[in-house]
Amino acid sequence: MTPSPPAQPDCHLRGWWLIVVCWVGLAAAGCEMQPQGGGEGPGHRQQELALKPEQELALGEKAYREVLSEARERILPANSPEVQRVRQIATRVVKAAGIEPLQREINLHLEGYRFEWEANVIRDRQINAFCLPGGKIVVFTGLLPVAEDDDQLATVLSHEIAHALAHHASERVARERSASRGGILSKAFDRQQETEADHIGVFLMTFAGYDPQEAVRFWKRMAGAHAGGSGLPEILSDHPSDEHRIRAIQEWVEPARKAKIAFDQGRIAPPRRR
C-alpha cells in the first residue's frame, strides 16, 4: 500500500463536508423533507430548517457510524488518555448547554430535540474536529498538540457542539434546496454560521468553567499555523478571517464572564411565561 502523503494542517476546523454524508443518507433512506421553519435563531436572524428533530438525530447517527466504519483501525481505545480528555471536556460543555438561562442568553431553541452525545478520537494528522447533528463528536489527534491545554481544547469542542445546538446542518440542507444558494452570498452565509458557533462556543466554555480568554489564544495559534499562506480574501472564504474572528471573540470574553458571574450569584431573570 502506498503511504498517504502527510496531511496539511486544516486551520479552519472544517467538519462541514460531512453534511454531504447526511444529505446522501437522507436521499437513500427516502425520507420526506418539508421546511420546518425555525423562527429566530442564535444569531437573531430567521432560520429556515429542513430537518425534523428526529431526522437530525437519525442522520447524525448514520453519518457518524459511516465515519467510524471508515476509520475503524484508527479509532483510539476508550481508555486512552486522549479519549478520556476529550470526553471529560465534552461532558462539561454539554452540561453547560443544558443551563436554561444560558440557552436564553444565546437564543438557543432546543425544545423537541434530542441529543445523544458521544465522542471519539481518530488517529489522523488533520488539525480538525466536528460535531454532527444529534451530538456525535469526532476529534482528530492532529488537533491535540495545537490545543495546549484543556481550556483551548474546550474552545474547539464548544465551537463544534455549538453547530449542532444551533441546527446549522438542517439550515444548510434547507439552503441547498433553495434558490438562494451559491456564489458570494453562500460564502457569507457560511461565515455567518461560523461566527455564530464562535459566539455560542465562548459562552458554552465559560459556563462549563473554562477560561474564555484561552479561546483568543487558541485562534491566534491557529492563525500562526498558516501564517504566510496564500489564503483567500474573506469575501471568497467560508470562514471569517483570522483577524475578524479573533477580534470578535475578544469582544465576547467579558460579556461571557459577566453572564457566568451573574448566574453563579443568582442574578438571572426567571424564564418568560408562555
Radius of gyration over all CA atoms, rounded:
18 Å
Which residue ranges are poorly predicted, with pLDDT under 50 across at least 5 consecutive positions?
1-12, 15-21, 229-238
User: What is the N-to-C succession of helices and strands?
Assistant: HHHHEEEHHHHH
Main beta-sheet annotation: 3 strands, mixed
Number of E strands: 3
- Main-sheet strand order equals 1-3-2
Overall spatial form:
globular
Averaged pLDDT, please? 81
Structural class: mainly alpha
- Which percent band covers the strand fraction? 5-15%
How far apart, in Å, are the first and last alpha carbons? Answer: 62 Å
Give the helix tally.
9
- Tell me the helix content: 40-55%
What do these coordinates show?
It is a single chain. It is built from nine helices and three strands. It is mainly α and 274 residues long. The protein has a three-stranded mixed sheet, sandwiched between helices. The chain starts with 17 loop residues before the first helix and ends in a 10-residue tail after the last helix. The N terminus is likely disordered. The relative contact order is 0.15. β2 and β3 form a beta hairpin.
